[in-house]
Amino acid sequence: MKLPTWFKSVLQSRLDDVFARVALDPEFRRIREEKDLAFQRLFSDPTIINKPEFSEWEDISHYKQEIENEYLYWQGMQDGAQLAYVIMALIMDDEQEKEE
């Protein structure tokens, strides 16, 4: 089944909106700043890989990615549920029109 162009456009617009919210969200921004600061500390010393700062940066980096992935997952679930509801409503309306 090929999706209509307008539908692809709506989905792309929704994705753009969600990614923009992730980029601007204060909590995500705070986590990104912590990760960037840890990254700067990490590479200020070439022998850092054997130091606790490397583990700190790694932990913060993984945590940030997990938080963003979880947010995107749940947003996708909500959007998917809304989409399924709308499609089911359209199908039911179409079936009722055929019966009449």
**Assembly type of the shown chains?**
single chain
Q: Total number of helical segments?
A: 3
- Rg result: 22 Å
Distance between the termini: 28 Å
- Biggest sheet, in brief? none
Protein name: Phage protein
Organism: Paenibacillus paeoniae
Describe the structure using short key phrases.
single chain; 100 residues; mainly alpha; 0% strand; Phage protein
Describe the protein.
The longest helix has 48 residues. Helices cover 85% and strands 0% of the residues. The protein is mostly helical and 100 residues long. The protein has three helices and no strands. The model has no long low-confidence stretch (mean pLDDT 82). α2 runs antiparallel to α3. The chain starts with a helix and ends with a helix. It has one domain. It comes from Paenibacillus paeoniae. This is Phage protein.
What's the short version?
It comes from Paenibacillus paeoniae. This protein is mainly α and 100 residues long.
